[in-house]
Structure to design on (177 residues):
């Protein structure tokens, strides 16, 4: 399970819930996909059927899911060793807090970044149109923050509220913004 959308090489929309002991609640699944990365020793790993859960704090590996993928998981000498047909590697090591921590480094795909940039570009090109309008046109959408849209929605105090002083001759008092 992962909370970082940009780590996914492939991501398919998915729905469902996962129970979380730490939050004592159900967390929504936003998608399922593939994450590619490396361990610090250089070993390349491809994680499949990874759940995207945006509200999750951190990332979790499931020994059961690793076994379903055809690997065996061995807990030995404060390490989690994963054995496959052609590979054997240490996935996690026990830290001082009693948690198994992985040194997995994801290979972040530039596809998501390019898609987000393209969505922002179309948002600006079409006069800061909302996601609904972009979806209607079949264009990519983004949940990123647009400062210009926020500033445009602000209202200003009208000029001239209160007592107004009138001069009797032109150019005695000049106002400017």
């Amino acid at each position: 399970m992962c909370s970082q959308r940009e780590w996914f090489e492939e991501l398919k929309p998915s729905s469902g819930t996962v129970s979380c002991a730490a939050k004592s609640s159900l967390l929504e699944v936003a998608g399922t996909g593939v994450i590619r990365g490396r361990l610090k020793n250089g070993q390349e790993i491809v994680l499949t059927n990874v759940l995207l859960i945006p509200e999750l704090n951190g990332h979790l590996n499931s020994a059961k899911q690793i076994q379903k993928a055809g690997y065996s998981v061995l807990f030995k000498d404060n390490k989690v060793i994963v054995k496959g047909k052609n590979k054997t590697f240490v996935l996690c090591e026990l830290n001082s807090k009693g948690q198994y921590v992985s040194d997995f480094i994801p290979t972040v795909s530039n596809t998501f970044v390019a898609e987000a940039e393209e969505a922002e570009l179309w948002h600006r090109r079409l006069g800061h149109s909302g996601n609904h309008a972009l979806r209607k046109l079949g264009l990519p959408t983004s949940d990123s923050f647009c400062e210009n849209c926020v500033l445009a929605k602000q209202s200003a105090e009208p000029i001239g509220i209160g007592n107004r002083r009138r001069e009797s001759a032109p150019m005695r008092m000049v106002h400017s913004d």
Observations:
- The chain has a mean pLDDT of 83.
- The chain has two domains: 8-106, 116-145.
- The first strand starts at residue 8 and ends at 13.
